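lol forgot to send this yesterday, sorry. struct tokens for the thing we talked abt
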């Protein structure tokens, strides 16, 4: 008997991001995060052997298209533009973008207050597209790493950061404590899903496995571990 016909004996290369806390990040050479653990559960259910390939967000889509990786599990928001080039699994996380300002800022309470302001975020992210679409800010600065945007805000080189809510919250409660705050309500609704090239044989089994890890309670356990229930 050989299993090679269904490809189950092949190792799937999975692109993850090296700095998207608490979803996927690399710390002391170790890959950690909610998605790293969720993916492991999904892969086991789907009977897929895999190898993680950590990289910067900017490299993820390219790595998929060039075949350097077979899948991306990295807080990737599903949207129309990306669907033109990539296939996505069923979504497994609902979230949205939020605005952050300096702790003592009093003149920015929502997106309508960004006229003439400087906004920072991560290059290539949905937040970067969103901020660019506002039209009112004086400048939208895109950094390759979101930590550079947060640092620019903490030292008041920019007026506002727009980024994914859970990542922003982690920064506000951690390194950004007493320096920055989240203002207003989330700006939109986004969902994360696993991405693959259009032509792939993985999304079907992955969707089945996502359904199972939700049903058997694994999803809830991991959610409570990483997001406090
Ligand atoms: N959710 C946002 C996006 O898809 C930001 C994600 C940041 N990291 C990542 N690896 N996609 O653009």
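and heres what i got for the seq, position by position
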């Amino acid at each position: 008997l050989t299993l090679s016909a269904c490809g189950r004996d092949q190792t799937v290369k999975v692109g993850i991001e090296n700095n998207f806390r608490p979803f996927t990040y690399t710390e002391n050479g170790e890959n950690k995060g909610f998605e790293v653990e969720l993916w492991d559960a999904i892969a086991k259910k789907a009977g897929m052997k895999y190898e993680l390939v950590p990289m910067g967000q900017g490299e993820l889509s390219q790595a998929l298209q060039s075949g350097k990786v077979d899948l991306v599990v990295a807080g990737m928001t599903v949207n129309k533009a990306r669907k033109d080039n990539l296939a996505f699994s069923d979504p497994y996380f609902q979230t949205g973008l939020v605005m952050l300002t300096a702790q003592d800022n009093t003149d920015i309470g929502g997106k309508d207050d960004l006229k003439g302001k400087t906004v920072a975020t991560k290059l290539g992210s949905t937040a970067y597209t969103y901020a660019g679409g506002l039209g009112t800010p004086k400048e939208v600065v895109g950094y390759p790493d979101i930590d550079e945007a947060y640092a620019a805000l903490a030292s008041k080189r920019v007026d506002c950061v727009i980024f994914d809510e859970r990542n922003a919250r982690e920064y506000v409660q951690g390194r950004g404590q007493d320096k920055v705050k989240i203002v207003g309500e989330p700006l939109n609704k986004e969902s994360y899903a696993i991405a693959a090239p259009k032509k792939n044989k993985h999304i079907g089994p992955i969707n089945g496995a996502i359904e199972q890890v939700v049903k058997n309670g694994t999803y809830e356990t991991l959610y409570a571990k990483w997001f406090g229930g």
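The two ends are 45 Å apart (CA to CA). anyway ping me if u want another try
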